[in-house]
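Review this chain:
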Amino acid sequence: MTDTLRIAARLAPELVALRRHLHGIPELGLDLPDTQAAVLEALAGLDLEVTLGESLSSVVAVLRGRAPVTGERPVVLLRGDMDALPVAEEVDVDYVSTRPGMMHACGHDLHMAGLVGAARILHELRDELVGDVVLMFQPAEEGPGGAEPMIREGLLEAAGRRVDVAYAVHVYSADHPFGTWFGRPGTLMAAADEVHVVVRGVGGHGSAPDRAKDPVPVACEIVLAYQSAVTRQFSVWDPVVLTVGRIAAGTKDNIIPDDAFVDATLRTFSAENRARAHDVVTRVAEHVAQAHGMTAEVTIGNGYPVTVNDVDEFAFSQGVVVDLFGADRWVDMANPEAGSEDMSFVLDEVPGAYLNVSACAFPDVADAEDNHSPRAAFDDSVVPDIAAALAEMALRRTRELSRGVVADA
């Protein structure tokens, strides 16, 4: 048993207790004062250089290794997200959310506890740590996004020099048996953008549509044209997913409104197709409206980029997991997911890897509900494994970087 696993096993009761405390006090978005306070309390007593966010309730803690190294000390970033979801919990546990309408339905409470565990493991082993570790406790992964403002506030230079590599772990409540790790090199998750279309017409009486410019059928035509554009202008091997979730117009059955509204989510799996899809979505709406003598105003809210695992860093982190837990606990992901992640902003800046692990609380995964469900249940006995894996990645990778070793694909 490695030192990281041994220490993680000893810390397990405290880490699970921390997770359950965090589960009971969920908070949303960028402002997480109670969550931030709980993280700081859990880190108290460790020899860390702590910086709090200015525009959000983030915590950045630098842990300095004490092993000698020639030249610059390598820097590894480990990330755990902090925010919850606006979901009313329906899981029957004695540590249920105490905040009505809020729930850690995506497992970020496990992520925080796992990262605290990694910090405590590395603190005990800092005489062996050949480098420095940046601990990234990040708000607002579920929106509006916390990674980007943390980067602007100096996250990647927190240790005094730029981060070399970055790693993160995410739990799942379904899909795989408990304790199964999974991931893939390259594209892991899609970019996600919000599309808002306003069709500008001229209102009038429903009995005389020829004396108005009705934006409603034009909006409907735009929705249908979008589906054709996706299937006819983009390769199935680099897909685009465009789903219209809202169409709105008017106030009464016999009144033609001035405007109609179309809101959609746009998912793409490469930076190239993301940029191209923005152009296609805008052009289709504008030209369909123009064909009917109207205009369409298209606004695309830039969301999260494509989450891409560096091939070499993914192979390295996968190797750590297999070494720690055995090959039987690893499964390759065949395809990327259409969900999105703002860890993508970090991985756009530095190479790294984002892995998944199942915390499914049911013996049969068919009985489990997915992340974001009010009935999503997580078995928090996986938290020590997350802590050990993150700590081991930092220990091994700083050692390799200090010797100039590139991660072996």
Q: What stands out?
A: Residues 3-24 form the longest helix (22 residues).
